Sequence to fold (887 residues):
Amino acid sequence: MGRSTKTTCPYCGVGCGILATPKENGAVEIKGDETHPANFGRLCSKGFALGETLDMDGRLLEPEVDGEKSSWEVALQHVADTFSKTIQKHGPDSVAFYVSGQILTEDYYVANKLMKGFIGSGNIDTNSRLCMASSVAGHRRAFGADTVPGTYEDLELADVVVLVGSNLAWCHPVIYQRIAAAKAARPSMKIVLVDPRRTMTADIADMHLPIATDGDAALFAGLLSYLAKSELVDGDYVAKHTKGFSEALGRAQFSPLEETATLSGLSTQELQDFYALWASNQKVVTVYSQGVNQSCIGTDKVNAIINCHLATGRIGKPGMGPFSITGQPNAMGGREVGGLANMLAAHLEIENPDHRDRVKRFWNAPGVAAKPGLKAVDMFEAVSDGRIKAIWIMATNPVDSMPDADVVEAALQACPFVVVSDVLAQTDTVRHAHVKLPSLGWGEKDGTVTNSERRISHQKAFLSAPGYAKADWWQMAQVALRMGYGDAFHYNSASDIFREYAAQTAFENGGTRDLDIGAYADVSDKEYENLLPFQWPAAKAGNWDGGDKRFFANGGFYTADQKAQFVVVNPQTQRENEQSLPFVLNTGRIRDQWHTMTRTGKSSRLSSHIAEPFAEIHPQDAASKGIGDADIVAVRNARGRIAVRALLTNRVQQGHIFVPMHFTNQVSSNARVDKLIAPVTDPFSGQPALKSDRVDIETLRAKQFGFVVSGKKPALKQLPYWALAPALNGWRAEFASDEPIEELEAFACSVFGLPSGFPLLVFKDHHSGLVRAAAFDGEHLVGALYLASTPVIVSRSWAVDQLSQNFSDLASRWQVVAGRPSEDMPDKGAIICSCMNVGVNDIAHAVQNGNRTVEMVGKSTCAGTNCGSCKSEIKAIINEHQLIAAE
Ligand code: SF4
Fold:
């Protein structure tokens, strides 16, 4: 066993501390760091599975120029020359960087410095624009700075936690667990879930408000009006520390409760219950994430929430405040160092000439971009229409994650010069790169990240760099040197950059800016190596009292007069042409995958939870459209069409469908849902409304459905529908064909990667249309194929397990062909607990045997006893069985 390293999870904005220990066999043991204040030892399923994502499969290990392997020297010179020539000929705004909340603060810092300070353009933006730019804009409008006022502890101290557009159980599981534990210890604590879907987070909610799409602005405008009518406004706080209250209230009092009900999609009773709960509890935290931010009125929604907290003075005190929780591990770090096109580093403002001058002097730069650059959607439009002629994309996959994703892909195809820095050789974006630069991955790179509560943690290297992979900051700095920017980019390590960044936050600050980590400006390399998680502000003595890490309990906002600004919010929700198609498409995440699956997609354990793209459809909508459960359906609008599996559930409202955003062309035939989303943005934040659009759905009448498990990656790309996922000791795939599959034996051999004529066990029932085939090599299963004219009914988890079994006799091999679990190896059903490999049937069996709590089921089956990410699903299964028993 090697030495343990304290590091930070690279996935969501919770920013959990991790203890990583390389083992002698090359594996890495992952544990939660009990000393880290974000998670205190907890991890979710994604974090726990990190050790399974560190292999070299698919890694980009050498630079490539125009499809040929190259040295770093050649590749870097080529990038520098092409950027320099493009700028010379077309000006600095003809180039752009599109970076990512996955990169480290030090990477971000160097990229921003090069673009805004030395190239002289604002054209650097980040995929964090897609995640929380509306929160940034809302904070800046209200507070005068992008400040998250509270801390995670507030979520545990609150008497009421309101979760708006936030499926914490799946998207920020450790925060969900912290809230669930606080509620278990103090059952009087109330949780409200505001979400169009009844997500797994509803498991801990006392109240679920199935809000209409974008109805949140109306909901919170109505709350402001209710607070005023109920005389619950904190007049003292409002008078001393805010401005614009009357104007905001005047607009909020636009309509009677009935109209708020219409706009929010809620009943007047639901509104009254929620308003009474919010109003009657002093300690309220309102948490919001993508359901609020990813909207064409996202910034107004954020300000509608903040308005209510300002009106009651419930901000910056223990257990109170608005709380934006970020999707990405370092969205906050990017915000700190100017990763957004409309910000400068260290929370300085690009529109402010004094701030620009301050940055110029600090960097000794030739000039600083005089205006904001292009935000993500505008940036790719500029690539599309030729204004941007050279783009460098770092650690992100815009071909999958941007709205109108097919247009983004076409723009990159046509762009004269595309550089991509990535860990993988093949993604939907990397394949369009003229220059591919191999980056270090998690465990190999070194730097800092900032989580949603302003806590900076070290993400450390504990593995050696593979191949020729290099840090992202190094790549940027080397190009800067070759573009002639000399000493300004002579960094030897991430710690050099961190010290410069820390010094910049303190530069001419004097308490005028929220972000100040000047106390760290002189850390030695050794101190940086051992950096413990800390929350900002952390100014050198004199600028900050070093006490409470909350903001604004006593005012002190970062506006000219130090008063917070109430914002007049428009509660209307309708987008133009919104009604032209019958269904609201709601996009989001699933529990065990992260973004476009480039890392989590490598883990068979994580893929065992959900292995195929799907659309959740309300049963009545499905009936009206002639869609059966597990049919393949097309989801379409004018921008395109995707094909996914139908999952009928009343977790979605009638008229809504939900499709996850993770699936790419690398793992499925046609499931990139963001190609259906219009590139509509919020006017203040530029954040695209990725959460929703209008669509129609229809069944794709497949003639043949199939499921396969195979030791080798199945060859399915000739089929119109397929979805592929790793499985223990092999692969699993779903597929469908609009033609009956003839020549079964030849088809099976080609899918299994075997030579034609390889001996197979085959079963065909011409009457029912069932066809099965399996191939064995010695005692091992090479592949098993199940075909049917309707969706295949075979236990997926059982079939996957067969890849790890020995088959010494013919009878057991025929059992594989039959697709029937034996009595000594019963069918687990769909995997619910991916950590402990426990399926829905195991849990149901435990419930039937009298285990009626999550804890009892855990004791009986081990489900939910590791990371706990599946506890909400276990509870749902218990509830379902209790309902059945009661019927
Ligand atoms: Fe990582 Fe999960 Fe923690 Fe998020 S909640 S930081 S994904 S372990």
Residues 94 and 168 are 40 Å apart (CA to CA). The radius of gyration is 27 Å. Residues 9, 11-12, 14-16, 39, 43-44, 46-47, 172-174 surround iron/sulfur cluster (CB under 6 Å). Residues 72-90 form the longest helix (19 residues).
